């Protein structure tokens, strides 16, 4: 996404020019941040995840708004995402959560980004570059994704010997914090204990001046006994749970920041028995009116939404029919007489008193909201409303 397709105003005129777009409610973002602030311990700071274009919302827009709300530090997935934020004037700490290839390490230093040490070999590679870097050490407490295994304390301590690396943080990641199952609760507590042990060993070895963090969204919502320097909220900060009905051990009101909208391009009249779309997957059971929407899988609409779910048109439910195309999709508006070309439709969000939640949309697509939102394409305009 370029900043050319971001409109930071109420955007009526711009919206009228757009075939498919995302509307962002920054008031909701602010309220979610305030809700989190009430949940986390006093003195603990937020380092929100704005990776993957802030889960499709638009990284620069979200980071700027968070910065205005007093949140200054961020995590991203890649060095390029960090560079984009810096170029947009984001000035706080930026942690790159995953691997930066050797050839791009100089950018970490040029743009003052903090790199995660993803394992021992990676630390050696960073040392060999000779570039002066600030790092957070990832600790693997059981997820077996990134980080140095928690028991390998010699390897962890050894990072302090690497002269070009300044260790300013140590963190881990929870992998079943969203689950209420007893075994998963135990596993999460074990991850926390392992993490605490590592931190204690480091302190005993005289290592200090580093921050410590563990929880992402579900860790914050379900393990409030944790008390570290930072939390790393992602999906929940955008006002969305990963899945409908997920277990959340704390009363918190999350307000969706994103709405997804498109337009009717044209209307097709079908006689009963006629088919529509690729493969003629849809067959009209009665004389029907279909509306063609100017949004498709290239915009991030999951193709397996074909024949599932509905969109909102004039505040009424219109079923998704036929196969989702690259740039279009079909809905049935036989019972929505007023539907006509250029009308707005809502794919995620509210129309009149009906709301399609991202959780519902993701369930239709047989996935989680994190995936659906983060795949919303660069072709969509972002409009702050
Ligand atoms: C993506 C990510 C987060 C944010 O996760 P959510 O579940 O969206 O809150 C936090 N920490 C790490 C290491 C991540 O990769």
Intertermini distance:
19 Å
**Uncertain residue segments:** none
Shape: elongated
Bound molecules: pyridoxal-5'-phosphate
Task: Quote the beta fraction.
Answer: 15-25%
Number of helical segments with 4 or more residues: 12
- Residue-averaged pLDDT, rounded? 95
Category from helices, strands and their pairing: alpha/beta
Helix fraction, binned, reads 25-40%
User: How many beta-strand segments?
Assistant: 21
Radius of gyration: 23 Å
Largest sheet: 7 strands, parallel
Any key phrases for this structure?
single chain; 385 residues; alpha/beta; seven-stranded parallel sheet; elongated; binds pyridoxal-5'-phosphate
Short account of what is shown:
This protein is 28% helix and 24% strand. The protein is an alpha/beta fold.
Structure description:
It is a single chain. The protein is an alpha/beta fold and 385 residues long. The protein is 28% helix and 24% strand. The protein is built from 12 helices and 21 strands. It has helices at residues 12-16, 26-39, 51-55, 59-68, 79-87, 105-110, 120-129, 153-158, 182-204, 217-222, 358-364, 369-374, and strands spanning 6-7, 20-24, 45-46, 74-76, 94-96, 114-117, 133-140, 148-149, 165-171, 211-213, 230-231, 258-270, 275-276, 282-283, 288-293, 310-313, 316-321, 329-332, 344-351, 354-356, 381-384. The strands form 4 sheets. Strands 4, 5, 6, 7, 8, 9 and 10 form a 7-stranded parallel sheet that branches. The radius of gyration is 23 Å and the shape is elongated. The structure holds pyridoxal-5'-phosphate. Residues 49, 51, 97, 173, 216-217, 232-236, 370 line the site of pyridoxal-5'-phosphate.
């Amino acid at each position: 996404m370029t900043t050319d397709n971001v409109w930071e105003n109420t955007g009526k005129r711009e919206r009228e020019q757009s075939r498919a777009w995302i509307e962002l409610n920054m008031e909701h973002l602010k309220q979610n941040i305030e809700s989190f602030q009430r949940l986390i311990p006093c003195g603990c700071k937020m380092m929100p995840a704005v990776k993957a274009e802030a889960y499709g919302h638009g990284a620069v827009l979200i980071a700027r708004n968070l910065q205005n709300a007093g949140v200054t530090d961020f995590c991203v997935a890649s060095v390029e995402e960090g560079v984009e934020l810096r170029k947009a004037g984001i000035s706080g700490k930026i942690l790159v959560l995953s691997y930066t290839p050797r050839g791009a390490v100089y950018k970490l230093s040029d743009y003052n980004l903090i790199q995660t040490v993803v394992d021992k070999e990676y630390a050696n590679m960073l040392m060999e570059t000779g570039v002066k870097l600030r790092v957070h050490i990832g600790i693997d407490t059981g997820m077996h994704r990134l980080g140095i295994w928690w028991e390998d304390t010699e390897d962890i301590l050894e990072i302090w010997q690497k002269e070009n690396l300044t260790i300013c943080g140590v963190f881990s990641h929870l992998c079943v914090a969203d689950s209420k199952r007893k075994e998963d609760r135990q596993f999460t507590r074990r991850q926390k204990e392992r993490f605490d042990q590592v931190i204690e060993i480091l302190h005993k070895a005289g290592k200090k001046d580093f921050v410590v963090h563990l929880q992402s969204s579900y860790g914050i919502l379900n393990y409030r006994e944790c008390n570290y320097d930072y939390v790393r909220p992602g999906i929940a900060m955008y006002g969305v749970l990963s899945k409908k009905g997920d277990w959340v051990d704390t009363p918190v009101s999350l307000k969706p920041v994103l709405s997804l909208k498109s337009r009717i391009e044209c209307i097709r009249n079908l006689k009963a028995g006629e088919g529509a779309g690729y493969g003629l997957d849809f067959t009209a059971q009665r004389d029907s009116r279909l509306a063609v929407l100017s949004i498709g899988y290239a915009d991030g609409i999951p193709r397996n939404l074909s024949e599932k779910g509905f969109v909102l048109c004039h505040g009424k439910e219109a079923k998704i029919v036929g196969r989702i195309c690259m740039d279009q999709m079909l809905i049935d508006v036989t019972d929505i007489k007023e539907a006509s070309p250029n009308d707005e439709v809502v794919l995620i969000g509210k129309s009149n008193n009906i709301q399609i939640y991202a959780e519902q949309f993701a369930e239709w697509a047989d996935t989680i909201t994190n995936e659906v939102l983060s795949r919303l394409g660069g072709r969509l305009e972002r409009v702050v409303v």
